[in-house]
Amino acid sequence: MRRRRASHLGLRARVTLTFGLGALVLSAAMGVMTYLAARQVIIHQRDTSVLHQAYVNASLVRSALRSPHPQIPQLLDSLDTLPGSRSVLEQRSTWFATSISIGRDALPAALRRDVVGGSPATQVFLVDGTPELAVGVPVPSVSAAYFEVFSYSDISRTLKILAIALAGAALVTTVAGALIGRLLSARALRPLYVASDAAVSIAGGHLDTRIPTDDADLVPIAASFNHMVDALQARIEREARFTSDVSHELRSPLTTLSASLEVLETHAGELSARTRQAVELLGVELRRFAQMVGDLLEISRVDSGAAELYAEEVDIGEFLRQVAASRQLSVPVDISPSLASRRVQIDKRRMERVVANLVDNAVHHGGGVTRLAAETRNGSIRLVVADRGPGVAPEDRQRIFERFYRGSAATRRGASSGTGLGLALVAEHVHLHRGRVYVEVRGGENCFVVELPSEGAAYEGRVPGGSAPANGAGLHRSAASKEEGE
Q1: What single-letter DSSP state applies at residue 407?
Q2: Is residue 47 within a helix (H) or strand (E), and if so which, with residue range?
Q3: What is the CA radius of gyration of the chain?
Q4: What confidence tens digit (pLDDT) does each residue in 287-331 have?
Q5: In which domain, by residue range, is 224 found?
Q6: Residues 281, 349 within the same domain
Q7: Are 286 and 318 part of one and the same domain?
């Protein structure tokens, strides 16, 4: 199946171009018709006046030649002719002319033959590249033939000026048409811009965004779009409630299982080797299951808008060293000099979870952590967890922070560890701090970078569902911050 090639021009540019080309074609057609009509009228009027004047002068020549001793040169000079015209007279094979440029040899031979033979005739010919109209009138009563030659140079100049004026008018019309198309396309496409902004807002998590329905022509489209968003919002809320309810319901059996496992581990010495191995496997899977339930509960809090930040001042260097010690890491902890004695405000519990999840990700998928670092750039604080693993494919660098997405490399390796929620939780916690997390490769290292805004900028208040807070409420400061049930 053939694919239609995408146009390099946007819709507004295409509308503008269409209006401009339409105006150009229309103005060019009108200009050509106007030019041809004006040319026809001007030439017809000139030819009519030329013929009339030639016959009048021929009548005067006939009357003058009937006198006994006519003075032909003086006669030709005395004739009333149009500006730029010249007279030529033939009588009994003798030729007379009022201009040396137009004489017997300058006249077309066919014209001379017809007029001398007794037939009036007209003919357009060129003299030094300039069109000339020759009118020949036989005067047989005095054995003569009168010729009058009229130049078209003034008509050519007039038509040239007219053509330039029409071309200028066509250009102005084209530009005006393009501008009108630009303005009209902007008004016509404004609903699309509104829909685009609404779609971007919805994609950013603002599910209460709707398209206004104040335009009668767009009511069906806006209503369909809003209905789709209503259905989407209802489904997301339903799935969020389901996740939260299931997570809460699983906590009771998890508690029972954990208590039973503790009992079994307490009496492990009384069990056979095979049973102890089964208990150990059960403990590993149960702790993994408990972590997944905890992650789901944490995400459900974010989705429902119940997540809150508890900010406290933290020495960022000591914070990273404590995290490294808690994860039993023996790697360098690089602290930028600008942060060596600086205390920053963060939600310590959440940021511990962020760094711990990034460390676990590096251990399981990056071959182990090579260093932790805290640095500043453009006023922002950057926490870096580096490893020397295979790196993250460029197409996965955004998607790995999606829920349950584990990346193409992990899928190919067939790794079974992890729930696909660790990096998603990292993104949620960092987003609550008004920061961002991303992957970059530098110096042969695969670096997960948590970039937080300058001190104080991240703590404007509670962030329900990851959206901007409406006011400064919802922020709590505490030296020991633990959420209920965590």
Answers
A1: -
A2: helix 11-65
A3: 48
A4: 877 777 777 777 777 766 667 778 888 888 888 989 888 888 888
A5: 216-302
A6: no
A7: no
